[in-house]
Amino acid sequence: MSWELWGLSTQTGEILTKDLRLSHLIDKLSASVDHVISEKHQDEFKSLLSLARKTAEKRNTLLHSLWIVHNGKPIICVDRKRGILGDKDIAVEEIEKFNSEIIDLTFLFIEFEKKHQNLGLGLNLDSSTK
């Protein structure tokens, strides 16, 4: 979606974003909202970016923590910032719930893009929507 908002071709978009951390991509999208999203849709898009940032932070906590697994189930998870996380934080159900949150967030971005197909540089943005 970022490539389309910025009016980039697939090749150029891949070159510019392939090694970009998700948090940095969110930063760049946040910084360019005023330039690529019409004013009446900016709050909605900023809300999506905020949700994406929280999801990315949660993902990083889960992914970059030290996991101790016994009989195929996580029993201890140590986060470098918060220390040992409790059972509730590491339950398989919580990880599955987080996976669903990622899927839901993806669909929210897809729905935003469908509703606002002409919002971005190079996407027929006319002056009446700016």
Task: Offer a concise description of the structure.
With 130 residues, the chain is mostly helical. The protein has helices at residues 2-5, 10-17, 22-36, 39-64, 87-90, 92-115; strands at residues 66-70, 73-79, 83-85.
Architecture overview:
The protein has 130 residues and is mainly α. The chain has one domain. The protein contains six helices and three strands. A three-stranded antiparallel β-sheet has the order 1-2-3. A hairpin with a 3-residue loop joins strand 2 and strand 3. Helix 3 runs antiparallel to helix 4 and helix 4 packs antiparallel against helix 6. It is elongated. The two termini are 19 Å apart. The C terminus is likely disordered.
Low-confidence stretches: 121-130
**Percentage of residues in DSSP E strands:** 5-15%
> What is the gyration radius calculated from CA atoms?
18 Å
Q: Helix content range of the residues, please?
A: 55-70%
What is the number of strand segments? Answer: 3
Give, in order, the helices and strands.
HHHHEEEHH
Strand order of the largest sheet: 1-2-3
Quaternary state reads: single chain
Distance between the termini: 19 Å
Supply the helix-strand structural class.
mainly alpha
For the record, the count of structural domains works out to 1
Average pLDDT level: 80
Largest sheet: 3 strands, antiparallel
Quickly count the helices.
6
**Approximate shape:** elongated
